[in-house]
Amino acid sequence: xxxxxxxxxxVILSEAASLELGCNxxxxxxxxxxxxxxxxxxxxxxxxxxFSGDPLVKGIKxxxxxxxxxxxxxxxxxxxxxxxxTAEYFCAVNAWNNNDMRFGxxxxxxxxx
Amino acid sequence: xxxxxxxxRHKVTETGTPVTLRCHQTENHxxxxxxxxxxxxxxxxxxxxxxxxxxxxxxxxxGYSVSRSKTEDFLLTLESATSSQTSVYFCAIKPGQGDTEAFFGxxxxxxxx
Lengths: 113, 113
Fold this sequence. Notes:
A: globular
């Protein structure tokens, strides 16, 4: 089965700093990739997704992610974070032909005002 | 928000007792999932369903069973609850296989004492 690893457990940034969160997956075939966000006390919400086509995908709230197939990576980026981006971020992978969706351990982002 | 209702939202139970958590959807989606969320582990897949009476195990299925007798309901049962099953449980639904996003419920916080 596929698996996902997120390198950063807790990231602390000041407002306006740039953000990059790492995500690597292990699966040899075609995959669909997702980033979800969980604000404190809430359920997970989709931030962005990659299915095919342009490897640079844009999501909500100014987030983007780049799929690099050769590196099995799908890193999340934002040029300038805001205090309201404080949340936990999860990378997820789903092989294109199965039902099993796996998540990484998550990265907690704290943005200081 | 997607029509997903988890019940109960909070439960405290004693070690050794059976517990059933319910996930109800109004979206008529084929795929349903149960995850548990624990600090440092992110979301881990317990079981999932790809249709009525069709279920499969995830990565942490020991001690859990599931049933899906109707499209809209997916039940997770802890046959004999243990303290290690104290966690937040999330239900998710998907309309199709890999290239569709998942929608999450609000979560159930279960404490086993």
